[in-house]
Amino acid sequence: MYFTSVDSPLGPLLLTAGPDGALTSLSVPGQKGGRTVQDDWRHDPAPFRAAREQLAAYFAGDLVEFRLELRAEGTPFRTRVWDALDAVPYGATTTYGEIAARAGAARAAVRAVGGAIGANPLLIVRPCHRVIGADGSLTGYAGGLERKVRLLTLEGAMEGRPAGAPRKAADLGV
After folding, report:
1. Which CATH architecture has domain 76-172?
2. 171: Cβ–Cβ under 8 A, 6 or more apart, which residues?
């Protein structure tokens, strides 16, 4: 496993990649369930050049879609949920129920969907920050609600909305 740290407006980001160079995780300081460097990991910034460049462009407001090789391991259900997350466009939000429907799960599976979203090992690049409550409330985020607000504000999903209401992907026809 390779790792590096990348400075960001959210604090230092810990990135990991497998031997093939595919990104396996992106964690923020204090993240619930976030990764920590292990003794057998090798520090090497080389496999992360594209990730560093794309993250810098994202935080500068110049990138709306990451194009990185990702390799997160999860159950088939989690993988379906993560694929549904990947379809939520920059600057929009969606609900847990909408993600459940996209993942082929019943609306009653919202708690399981929330668990899969909370287990997302690739914060920011797999946009779990774009998922909000059905009532428009900003619900949990493994990286902390303050970071969620910062990411949604960066993407313009909260800018100029009544009472800070994010823009919903469903309203965009997505």
Report:
1. Orthogonal Bundle (1.10)
2. none
